[in-house]
Amino acid sequence: MSDIKSATKRAFLQSLFDAIANNTATVDLASGSQAVDAAVITLLDALKAFQRMGFNALKNGRLSLGSSGLGHDVRWAPPMQWRSFGQEEVFGMAQEFREVYNDAIITLAGQGNSSPNDATILSVMMADDRLATVDSLQRDFTLLRWNQRY
């Protein structure tokens, strides 16, 4: 699991879904000079494009800010240390989204919904434990894990 807060993960996922609903996902997921290979129509397409965008940023080791003309002038920026999360974490989150997506499809198929729409898949994904915020803590006072209990 990536070290990004679950609220941020859900916000990324919701933004991907909103881009699909607004028919802007193909443009939104184009990063600088790196274009999306195909039209982004479904949630799975968006997750794949998002992961590909993270992979391209990671393999270069730097971020493309943009280019002019035929790519003769490309502006690069090294990853910023002040960001709340790095490229590796975003790439890990993209993989986590794909795993949650696959589990949501399996869950819905088990419930008899073999061809769910993106809104249904999103609701199952948002309810997944991997995207849940931990808001309670339980303390163990039994001393079962204390190594000098005998």
How would you describe the overall organization of this protein?
The longest helix is centred in the middle third of the chain and has 24 residues, at 87-110. The chain has a two-stranded antiparallel sheet with strand order 1-2. The chain has helices spanning 6-21, 25-28, 43-60, 87-110, 118-126; strands at 63-68, 73-77. It has five helices and two strands; from the N terminus they run H-H-H-E-E-H-H. The mean pLDDT is 76. The chain has one domain (9-129). The chain has 150 residues and is mostly helical.
Descriptive terms for the model:
mainly alpha, 2 strands, 150 residues, 5 helices
List the helices and strands and how they pair.
Layout: H1 6-21, H2 25-28, H3 43-60, E1 63-68, E2 73-77, H4 87-110, H5 118-126
Antiparallel strand pairs: 1-2
CA distance, first residue to last residue? 37 Å
**Major sheet characteristics:** 2 strands, antiparallel
How many domains, as an integer? 1
Low-confidence stretches: none
What is the beta-strand fraction? Answer: 5-15%
Mean pLDDT: 76
Outline type: globular
| Helix and strand pattern | HHHEEHH
Q: Largest beta sheet: what is the strand line-up? A: 1-2
Report the count of strand segments.
2
Q: Count up the helices.
A: 5
| Share of helical residues | 40-55%
What class would the helix/strand composition place it in? mainly alpha
Q: Please tell me how large the radius of gyration is.
A: 20 Å
